[in-house]
Amino acid sequence: MANYTAFTAEHAVDYIKKLIENELSSVFAADATLTAYEFGDGNLNLAFRVADQHNNSVILKQALPYARCVGESWPLSLDRARIEAEVLINHGQLCPEHTVAILHHNVELALTVLEDLGDLQILRGAQIKAEQFPLLANHVALYLSRTGFYNSDFYLSAEDKKAKVSQFINPDLCKITEDLFFTDPYIQHERNNFSAELTEHVESIRNNDALKLAAAKLKAKFLSCPQTLLHGDMHSGSIFVDSKTTKMIDPEFGFFGPVGFDIGSFMGNLLLNYCAQNGRIAEQAKRRQYQTHLLTCLQDCYSQFEQHWLNLASSEATDISFANRAFIEDYLQHVLRDAIGYCGAELIRRTIGLAHVADIDGIEDEQARLAVQQQTLVLGEQLMLNATSCNNKDEFFSLLISLLN
């Protein structure tokens, strides 16, 4: 990309000014006075908020040619910006009410201009404060079922599906997931990050052949099972919310992979927050009430996801073989087992791998934080080890409740 340059706030202002007459005329007036600041706190990219004197604003996101959290020693392809933009376009057409709107994309500069969701909250921060969102489960289930089904073999022709798989090949970011989810936590690796007090537990994980087998099977499916166009990074930092709205952002890890990965990642983040509250909310009744809310959200989300998929497959499958009720139910059984496994892997990797979550790391009391970390590791292990024995969602929910009690 010969014309690529990493932006500053001044670059962002100049660039947005050039878009006002056409693509951004509905956001800014022609005589708008623009200012910008960089606020990106993610691991990979620059992010600028560009606003006018009336507080109308957009977000300009630009990929860097390396992982921001590490530096130039970890190079990454700028093509991930194209992939992210095209995932947003695809998902936005299928579920516009729950996908951040893309306003502009420039392949050469690896940048995207998005609607500003600043009037919403990032789900992770809100859940750390134990805030509840009664529509979250419904919205996530609708988003994942629609984007999943309409990008799957249930709906796409074989030709269209293969073309889309090729369009969304994402080797650099998939490699990050493959390593951080399925490899690093189960070996001694410099990227792993955990306190010395967890060493004995970490060693038991590394020596658990059954658990490493489960991780290998999950990795193999992630590598070789292009079932649908995934968001690829469905953690609670990629979701904006308020009491009525839920919007998904940042699908730069998007690619064609197993349906269960996104729903499993989301469930894993609910459980990370569930465990974290044991070290955050001192009052038992208040803590149990909020944790019950999180479990209800998890159960409702998966149940509604499954029901949406069943309804769509029964009425809109384009291949008569896939409209067969017995096949749909068998397919969803495998999706559930995958989701449980990926959920468990998320719990483990967020505890001892490179990328932690503020839900847990922000617990001030060291002993309370350590107890939470021990719980997430045990929960993750048990979910991974028992995933294939769950025949339906009721068995999964019963298993989950038994593990948490």
From TrEMBL:
Gene3D superfamilies: 3.90.1200.10, Phosphorylase Kinase, domain 1. GO terms for molecular function: kinase activity. Its EC number is 2.7.1.100. It comes from Pseudoalteromonas gelatinilytica. It catalyses: 5-(methylsulfanyl)-D-ribose + ATP = 5-(methylsulfanyl)-alpha-D-ribose 1-phosphate + ADP + H(+). It holds the Pfam family APH. It is an enzyme of class 2 (transferase). The keyword ATP-binding applies. ATP binds at residues 45, 61, 115-117, 250-252. Belongs to the methylthioribose kinase family. Catalyzes the phosphorylation of methylthioribose into methylthioribose-1-phosphate. This is Methylthioribose kinase. InterPro entries: Aminoglycoside_PTrfase (IPR002575), Kinase-like_dom_sf (IPR011009), Methylthioribose_kinase (IPR009212).
